[in-house]
Write a structure and sequence with these properties.
About 50% of the residues lie in helices and about 15% in strands. The protein has 23 helices and 14 strands. It is globular, with a radius of gyration of 29 Å.
């Protein structure tokens, strides 16, 4: 309970924020919840429970509720149904096929034991009388059994390959079928995942009786809209904000080829329930307005970090598990060793491997990678690449640090790198969190030639641009910055520049919007 609640003072209103992840690592969501709670609203943040189970805790003045994501009966796609007809003998899973294939060895072992059994008996002890099928019958039945298992295993492998195929025919037919039958509601058949969040979160949302629901990212827009509809039907004047983090039609497919079309239909069905829409970049704001025919441009709140606050802050007390206070210390490097840094998700489309490969062309440069997953297939490939190129001693892989200490942690590096792959729509329009984190840490930025961020780097004069996925060109860009670093740092000294790119400035936009929707503080 806060001091304000203990004194019985009325707060501005109750806000429920929704997100489809475990909240850990989602700095925008964490900052939003903490900032609005500090501004006087009673904030409850609902997210998905981690594998350890549901829990509840305080995030500053905000209350976090992480809930179990409930399961629903799986729905078979057209491709899955055709696969079952085409490969009727396939086992349910490849694991079952593997176990059944091992049974063949057991059968051979039994035949060998039977054939050698009589000759091996010495007569020292009387053997029990066991009834056996004749040897010829055992051989024939064993052969039939093995043949069936092999065929079922073959069909299992073929069915798996068929299910992964993307020729467009069956998936396109399925999309047209459900669109014809259900229109915009077709997402319920194509990808019912949003319904899992609906049944998992609705009870807690209704229990909290919010005055405003703030839906973070596209998966929450329908969950929020349905909760608002229920509340309004019961006579409550609940308001809704949709915080669009990405351009949904530009997402990369995550499960099936129809996944993107399903999410786009889901967003279109419910976006009209929102009283206000917020997004993360000016370019995305324009795209949302055009796509959905919005009367006004969505408000832009950038994914900027809090300003670096030297002295008396949490950042001065925090250390890594090994006692390091900043990234250079965590890498055990002296002040004169060139150090580049990346912080964010480790995934092929983020092109983190390009950073590792670039070290081959930058003999003295070290790279610190602050990533979400320290194992996994892609991270293992990064380590293997570093070993193959002979740069493993210059690659320092470490986990995330808390968002509110990250800027200070990064500030002892020399250059921040954002190697995002060029092409996907959301990459081209993004002004990502790490871009602003590097700026607040006063690090020159080397970015791939994705449009929005490369335009900003050139306009502000704070770094260099390299050709996406080109390790040699990345090394060139890094060397260009290192050879004249003061020139790239100088723009940060312009009065008010870093204030504009701070979370404090962005949170003010949320406060203004909340006050417009809920009224001034009582």
């Amino acid at each position: 309970m806060t001091d304000q609640q203990a004194k019985g003072t009325r707060r501005r209103g109750r806000v429920v924020m929704l997100v489809d992840n475990t909240i850990d690592g989602d700095s925008r969501v964490q900052k939003s919840a903490r900032s609005m709670a500090e501004a006087g609203w009673e904030v409850h943040l609902i997210g998905r429970a981690p594998s350890s189970g549901p829990d509840s805790y305080r995030l500053g003045e905000a209350q976090v509720h992480r809930l179990t994501l409930l399961r629903l009966p799986s729905r078979k796609s057209f491709r899955q149904r055709v696969s079952r007809l085409r490969y009727p003998l396939a086992y349910q899973t490849p694991d079952v096929a593997l176990l059944r294939t091992r049974q063949i060895k057991v059968g051979w072992s039994e035949l060998e034991a039977f054939a050698a059994g009589a000759a091996a008996r010495t007569g020292v002890a009387q053997s029990p009388r066991v009834r056996h099928l004749p040897a010829n019958v055992r051989r024939v039945t064993g052969k039939v059994h093995r043949t069936v298992i092999r065929e079922r295993a073959r069909q299992t492998k073929a069915a798996k390959e068929f299910s992964k195929a993307n020729d467009g025919l069956l998936d396109g037919l399925e999309l047209r079928w459900w669109r014809a039958a259900m229109g915009e509601r077709a997402w319920r058949r194509l990808d019912p995942m949003p319904l899992r969040y609906e049944i998992s979160y609705r009870e807690k949302i209704d229990e909290l009786k919010p005055d405003l629901i703030h839906a973070h990212d596209f998966r929450m827009v329908g969950v929020a809209a349905r909760a608002v509809a229920r509340a309004r039907h019961a006579g409550a004047n609940v308001r809704m904000i949709y915080d669009a983090h990405e351009f949904v039609p530009g997402l990369l497919p995550r499960t099936t080829p129809n996944w993107v079309a399903s999410q786009a239909a889901y967003e279109r069905e419910y976006i009209g329930y929102a009283d206000a829409i917020v997004t993360v970049s000016p370019a995305l704001s324009e795209m949302l307005k055009e796509r959905h025919g919005l009367a006004e441009l969505p408000i832009v709140t950038l994914n900027a970090p809090p300003k670096l606050q030297p002295g008396g802050s949490h950042a001065d007390e925090w250390t890594t598990d090994r006692g390091a206070r900043d990234v250079r210390e965590a890498c055990d490097l002296g002040p004169d060793v060139p150090l580049v840094v990346y912080c964010g998700v480790a995934a092929p489309q983020r092109c983190v491997h390009t950073i590792v490969e670039s070290l081959e062309f930058s003999p003295n440069v070290h790279a610190a990678l602050l990533i979400n997953n320290l194992d996994g297939e892609y991270v293992r490939s990064l380590r293997e690449t570093a070993e193959r190129l002979g740069v493993a001693d210059r690659v320092h892989i470490m986990g995330y640090v808390p968002y509110d200490v990250l800027v200070g942690f990064l500030s002892t590096a020399d250059v921040g790198i954002h190697p995002l792959v060029k092409g996907p729509v959301n990459h081209e329009v993004a002004l990502s969190t790490k871009f602003f984190e590097f700026m607040q840490a006063r690090l020159p930025v080397v970015v791939s030639d994705v449009k929005a961020m490369s335009d900003e780097v050139r306009r502000l004069g704070i770094g260099e641009v390299f050709a996406s996925a080109d390790a040699k060109d990345l090394a060139r860009a890094v060397q260009a910055v290192l050879s004249d670093r003061p020139r790239y740092v100088a723009p940060f000294d312009a009065p008010g520049m870093l204030d504009e790119w701070s979370w404090e400035a962005q949170a003010g936009k949320y406060v203004t919007l909340y006050e417009e929707l809920l009224g001034e503080a009582p």
